[in-house]
Amino acid sequence: MELKLIAQDLTQTSKTACDALIVLVPELFAQSLPVSKAKTTSNLTELISQALKEGDFETKTGKLLQIYRSNHAAATRTVLVGAGDGSVKSIKTAVTAAVSSIKATSAKKLVICLSEVKQISAEAAKAAILCAADASYVYTSTKTKVEPRKLTNITVTVDSQALNASELIATQAYITPAMTGIEFAKEWGNRPANHATPDLLGKAAKSLSKYKNISVDVLGLKEVAKLGMGSFMSVAQGSDQPLRFIVLKYNGAAKTVAPTVLVGKGITFDTGGISLKPAPEMDEMKFDMCGAASVLGTFRALAGIQPKINVVGLIPACENMPSGKAVKPGDVVTSMSGQTIENLNTDAEGRLVLCDALTYAERFKPAAVIDIATLTGACVIALGAVRSGLFSANDDLANALLKAGESSGDPCWRMPLDDEYGEGLKSNFADMANVAGRAAGLVTAAKFLQKFTASYPWAHLDIAGTAWKSGAVKGSTGRPVLLLLNYLLNLESNHALTSVSIAKTAIKKVVKKVVNRPAKTAVKA
Ligand code: BES
Ligand code: MN
Ligand code: ZN
Which of 46, 161, 296, 326 has a CA between 20 and 30 Å from the CA of residue 255? Predict the structure, then answer.
């Protein structure tokens, strides 16, 4: 699908031939209504004014008015949608409502007019276009009788005063890779476990190595055993599907630049193991690799954007199954770090695969390590589907992730890591147990992971509530690809800023030296 962003006003946009035109109408539009008593209207602005006046349309967020083959627009279908206060949130709600309303039509070319939302930010324009792509997404991989997405083009228009030329260019360069990355993550999240085995996940990762600056290694049991990943191996041992340990590298900067490491939980199916989960909704445990999918999606986006940074992706992938070979409650395993772990609940498997990947991450001398995992049901209870849980002892890292989440509309919320929360992890038979009590289960899980992260700045994102939707709209959301991508891109611009300021200080020093240098030539003469 082609995504485009242009600066153009409503009158001009209404003359563009397309299958569907969506016009976002904010509250402010209603306040500056052109007064006209005429029954007939000559343009779209007047038509909107009249519809508002006569009560057929409202600017309240998400309110819709559909018009077919209107004389006021070159589009086949025109959809007016209320955009409320014009905030990023309102814009997202409005776009989702309007795009959903035309999803069943045969519209191929869609234009979304944001020009009436004056002073719109680049972030809001990005959110709108990605939201439209999201609302038009159709999962097709394992269906034979499904019509694929009909939309082929989405063009978003913004007021020419809102974004300057360089903002337009930067936004245009971002939107398509971001969408492709999100959809890569959604695709792998949605695939049933028999179509997304650890081996297939490895092959999906391998497919990314065709892009510039990306290389991928996929390790099997032999190599993982050699590395001493006893904890990871203990989770995989109950399954007939062989485990995979996936290592992705994106090298956009000099080798000397320390990489950011992303670690994604890749449990391709979580039955709970011997501590078996109840049957209702167990199918949803195919989403237990959404952390891994978000890492793959982020790499897919990096491939398209090519920022000057270094990123490593690590994915421990396996199934968590009960069987005669499965790990049992009470078993003690030795992790790659050397620390021993008593497995008191085989359903707390995510942390057992992540801990070895976190130890493996040390070899990259990373600037930071961020793990992403559908780790606990407790996080779903605490934060629901709105915000991912964020844990970090490092304020700078936490704040940067919070900021990236807010600006991209893929938000998270910081949770505590006080040492007292870790007390329940004590074991009589190993260095630690893999579970504590029921209280604050999302925090105790993070405390477990923290024991493996002493040598670098670390953050953990619990995406159990945000990575997929349940019920009629069941499916992967592609989160938190945007959060991660924005965090990484901010690193690039911060790095550029620091290089500029380092360069400036260097220049100042040189200037000082030159100024203070004794005038040799004068002495000579
Ligand atoms: N994959 C689950 C977490 C999960 C549960 C995500 C429900 C979304 C919805 C994880 O492996 C798990 O089973 N966690 C247990 C931990 C418990 C045994 C300490 C949980 O949350 O119940
Ligand atoms: Mn589990
Ligand atoms: Zn799990």
Answer: 296
Nearest ligand 1 atom to the CA of 272 is 13
CATH number at residue 148: 3.40.220.10
Query: With bands split at pLDDT 50, 70 and 90, how would you rate the model's confidence at 156?
Result: very high
Does residue 39 contact residue 98 with C-beta atoms inside 8 Å? Answer: no
- The reply to whether 401 and 472 lie within a common domain is yes
- Same domain for 94 and 226, yes or no, is no
Query: What's the rounded mean pLDDT across residues 492-511?
Result: 69
Cα dist from 333 to 232, 288, 387, whole Å = 9, 22, 34
Residue 92 in domain: yes
Based on the fold, state whether residues 28 and 142 are members of the same structural domain: yes
Residues contacting residue 326 through CB under 8 Å, at least 6 positions apart: 237, 238, 273, 274, 346
Residues 126 and 212 in one domain: no
Q: State the alpha helices, DSSP H only, in 306-416.
A: 350-361, 377-383, 395-408
| pLDDT, tens digit (0-9, with 9 covering 90-100), for 69-99 | 999 999 999 999 999 999 988 999 999 999 9
Q: Which residue's C-alpha comes closest to atom 3 of ligand 1?
A: 376
Q: Dihedral, CA atoms, 204, 208, 210, 214, nearest 10 degrees?
A: -140
Residue 507 inside a domain? The answer is no
- Give backbone dihedrals phi and psi of 189, rounded to 5 degrees, phi first: -65, -40
**Domain span at residue 374?**
183-489
Q: Which atom of ligand 1 is nearest the CA belonging to 441?
A: 19
pTM: 0.93
Cβ-based neighbours of 302, under 8 Å, separated by 6 or more: 177, 181, 213, 214, 250, 252, 311, 485, 488
Ligand 1 neighbours by CB, cut-off 6 Å: 270, 288, 345, 347-350, 374-378, 380, 435, 441, 464
Give catalytic status of residue 37 as yes or no. no
- SS3 category, 251: strand
CB neighbours of residue 46 within 10 Å: 16
Final residue in a domain of this structure, among 99, 125, 160: 160
Coil, strand, or helix at residue 247? strand
User: Which entry of 126, 244, 351, 447 is annotated as an active-site residue?
Assistant: 351
The rounded Å distance from CA 375 to ligand 2 centre is: 8
Q: Give a yes or no: residue 524 inside a domain.
A: no
> What residues contact 503, with CB distance under 8 A and at least 6 apart?
none
Please name the residue that has the structure tokens 């004590």: 426
Q: Please, which residues have CB less than 5 A from ligand 3, an ion?
A: 267, 270, 288, 350
Do 72 and 194 belong together in one domain? no
Mean pLDDT of 130-159: 93
Helix (H, G, I), strand (E, B) or coil at 216: strand
Q: How many structural domains does the chain have?
A: 2
| pLDDT of 493 | 86
Task: Say how many Å lie between the CA of residue 129 and the centre of ligand 1.
Answer: 33
